[in-house]
Amino acid sequence: MMKLLPIAILALAFAPHSGGVELRPVEIHDQLALQAEPGKKIALTLDACSGKFDSNMIDFLIKNRIPATIFATKKWLNRNPLGLSVIKAHLDLFDVENHGEKHIPAVIGAGKSVYGIPGEPDVVHLRREVIEGGKAVEKATGIAPHWYRSATAEYDAQAISEIDKLGYKIAGFSVNADDGATSKQRTIEKRLARVKAGDVIIAHMNKPASDSAKGLSVGLAYLLKAGFTFVRLDQVKLQESPAKAGRNLHRKS
């Protein structure tokens, strides 16, 4: 049975328009659901859209034993066999989830786009994006994914419903660390310094020429010293973060 969409998503997804009701994409903000065990738990999620493999970032995570959930597209998996081999050698740390086949935003309809990236022309194409992305992850790692994050991390109401029907949980976030790997190192450090227990961090591991690895290395080291514990999304549940509902914090990735 399809789950009911959160009230905040429904309120944002449908906006009045002179011609009737117009679907508007939303960015989903989540935090970790309340945990039975006490502790300062947070989740690091890394998008691998297309592009390359940021070995400096992954090497830092491995050295410091920091778990992360990686959202990889089929495009990235096919283009980065060396990076994939490193991740597969450390599946005790890394959980690989579904970021789609071709990195297409989850908005449906002719002419629709997010940050200039065209969306899906119809539901059939959306289903292919999700299904083929999932197959690629399972083929690459031997483990079927259960979480989905679309390109740009924005969705319209119809796409949310279809992704749910396909059996995926949509992975939102509460802290945008690197703005699609466009932020400077100091900005990333400042954002991570404000992380609180329960936060879900989004960053990117597909642009090694960016400041993402440098900023995250400093920021994550600080969080470790502050006593935070990192968890993967396959180990927890997420809940809507009402404090950030409706805020548009995610730039083109």
TrEMBL record:
SUPFAM superfamilies: Glycoside hydrolase/deacetylase
Positions of the NodB homology domain: 40-231
CDD domains cross-referenced by the UniProt entry: CE4_BH0857_like (cd10955)
Domain of life: Bacteria
A single GO molecular function term of this UniProt record: hydrolase activity, acting on carbon-nitrogen (but not peptide) bonds
GO process annotations (BP): carbohydrate metabolic process
Protein name: Polysaccharide deacetylase
